[in-house]
Write a structure and sequence with these properties.
Layout (H helix, E strand, L loop, with lengths): L7 H26 L12 H18 L3 H14 L12 H23 L1
Helix pairs in contact: 2-3
Length: 116
């Protein structure tokens, strides 16, 4: 009676296939759960938004519309381009301690290399 044994090469192939399938499933779930942009919002870079607002302003100036509407469009454009607030670290104690620990490990490794 032949013994049943796992072939290591087959086992590696099965693990790789499982890993690829799981990552594809997780990526598809992430794409499905991502928020959809509102229909009124424009897609594109800030330069495209700037070009569009400048075109609208020039069109309004040509047609002789009131100055208030042009200022309103400029204000709306400046609100669209506001940068988000920067995130500052709460404390630099942990990163500093990690760097000191890394330096100590490197020193110990160098000592063992040259002393041994």
């Amino acid at each position: 009676m032949p013994k049943f044994a796992f072939n290591p090469a087959l086992f590696r192939v099965i693990l790789i296939v499982l890993f690829v399938v799981i990552t594809q499933i997780l990526a598809a779930r992430k794409r499905a759960n991502s928020p959809k942009p509102a229909p009124g919002m424009q897609k594109g870079s800030p330069l495209e938004v700037l070009r569009e607002s400048m075109r609208q302003a020039s069109d309004q100036a040509r047609t002789g519309q009131s100055k208030g509407q042009v200022d309103g469009a400029a204000m709306q454009f400046s609100q669209q381009l506001q940068q988000p607030s920067t995130i500052e670290p709460e404390s630099s104690l942990i990163p500093s301690a990690l760097l000191v620990a890394l330096f100590a490990c490197l020193c110990l490794m160098a000592y063992r290399y040259w002393a041994g």
